[in-house]
Amino acid sequence: MSTFLPVDEQLDLLQKGAAEIIRVADLRERLEESRKTGRPLRVKAGFDPTAPDLHLGHTVLMRKLRHFQQLGHQVIFMIGDFTSLIGDPTGRNVTRKPLTLEQIEKNAETYKEQVFKILDAAATEVRYNSEWLGKLGYEETIRLTSHFTVSQMLERDVELGGTDQRFNLMCGRELQRHYGQKPQIVLMTPILEGLDGVQKMSKSLGNAIGINEPPQEMYGKLMSISDELMWKYWVLLTDLKQSEVDALQADVASGAQHPMALKKRLAMTITAGFHGETATASADQNWARMFQQKETAENLEEVRVKAAHFWMGSDMRGRVAKLVTLAGLAESAAEADRKLKEGAVRIDGEIVKQTHIAIPSGTKTTIRVGKRAKIVHLYLPCVGEQVTIDMPEKQGLYQVESASFGPMATVWLLDSQGNQTIKESVPLGLLSPVIPSD
Fold first, then answer.
1. Which of 16, 35, 200, 435 is most buried, taking the most CB atoms under 10 A from its CB?
2. Are 324 and 246 contained in the same domain?
3. Same domain, residue pair 346 and 310
4. How far apart are CA 192 and CA 17, in angstroms?
5. Total number of domains constituting the chain
6. Quick check: 249 and 228 in contact, CB under 8 A?
7. Helix, strand or coil, per DSSP, at residue 209
8. 57 three-class SS
9. Which positions ≥6 away from 218 have C-beta within 8 Å?
10. Is the pLDDT of residue 1 over 70?
11. Measured between alpha carbons, how far is 202 from 55 in angstroms, rounded to an integer?
12. Does residue 1 fall inside a structural domain?
């Protein structure tokens, strides 16, 4: 019996974030053959150790290698030590200068330390292209380049690379045909935009997130990306399947989840992958404290909105326009709807586009409409809490016996000694907390 997942389940993960696969039908065929024979695919990607430190843009390809590895296939991490000695002979890439053997060896070791934060070291085959190219004499080199410039003399099923490596990857297929091998499947990953969401992630452009950066810095940078870019990071920098990412997007579109919550989850997922859960939890707390200090520094008014007036059901969802109106940031729901369409409504710093949103009780949320902002506390009475009832004929203190989403709550009228006297059922929306006197 095969130990590999069904082919469709494998493709759900492998196709996620792929810019192009040549060809998908061939990949499916080899995965099916792998399941029948029990033989894992051999999957290779090459990396030139031209710089000591990696950023998240470099990890897109490595993570796709990890996906093959998670599915039980054999991953080959090829270090281009020989080609790094040469640099870029065309002169077009001024940043890719020839390196000394000592520099290459040092960078290669640093690469492996960083790479194995993503790949399973015990299950990864590390090879160096000098094993082949370093042994070629002049005659063999000329004969080889008469077909194509090649850095692939290793038989494999799949080769990965960025979209900027398409020509070399396709040459590999042709060379394999020439030597009687079955042509490799080519899977190309896209270029990852940096923090600006426009240009390719690059340290020289100042828009990169280094994988060796402190957890606080990494987390903070991830929280700064746009909502639109967040989805590309979910696809390219995590191990979620495409179907799972699609489900998250659907939740945001329906208002079941807030983009800020998913961005925090993304930041925690990526940061924890490089720094561990404990350091990431600390980074999250520090970021939340800094964000809260930034908001409260404006001396924003805090208002209480009753959950019973906002929620539409037990899923804690409600209309954004109604919440804005209840917070006193719009004169009417119609005005709030208009502001929402204009992109003028922000919740916890993020522009809100969906019409409905889920907010749990007890949550303090910063809502901004244009230049006006308030901290909104969504209130739901707790069992045992002392409350008042917003009705002239209902004086005195009451204690909550039961209160959950629904039209009514059960309370006890308290006497002057705090003893329960009369049990009543009242509308949930009429309960208010007791405000302590100064």
1. 16
2. no
3. yes
4. 10
5. 4
6. no
7. coil
8. helix
9. 209, 210, 211, 267, 270, 271, 274, 275, 283
10. no
11. 8
12. no
3-state SS class at 30: helix
* Structural tokens at position 169: 């990857």
Q: 184 and 49, same structural domain?
A: yes
pLDDT tens sequence across 79-112: 877 666 655 444 444 444 566 777 777 777 777 7
Q: What is the DSSP string of 149-172?
A: --S--S--SEEEEEGGGHHHHHHH
pLDDT of residue 420 exceeding 70, the answer is: yes
How much is the pLDDT for 5?
94
| Burial group, residue 225, by CB count within 10 angstroms (0-12, 13-18, 19+) | buried
CB atoms within 10 A of CB 60: 21
Structure tokens at 237: 């920098």
- One-letter amino acid at 361 equals S
Do both 140 and 24 map to the same domain?
Answer: yes
The reply to whether 73 and 130 lie within a common domain is yes
**Angle, CA 236 vertex, CA 233 and CA 241 arms, to 5°:** 105
**Domain boundaries, position 429:** 386-433
Name the residue type at position 429: G
Q: What is the mean pLDDT of residues 68-74?
A: 95
Integer Rg of the chain from CA = 29
Our separate counts of H helices and E strands in the chain read 16, 18
Report the C-alpha gap between 344 and 333 in whole angstroms: 14
Do both 184 and 264 map to the same domain? Answer: no
pTM: 0.64
In whole angstroms, what is the distance from residue 337 CA to residue 319 CA? 9
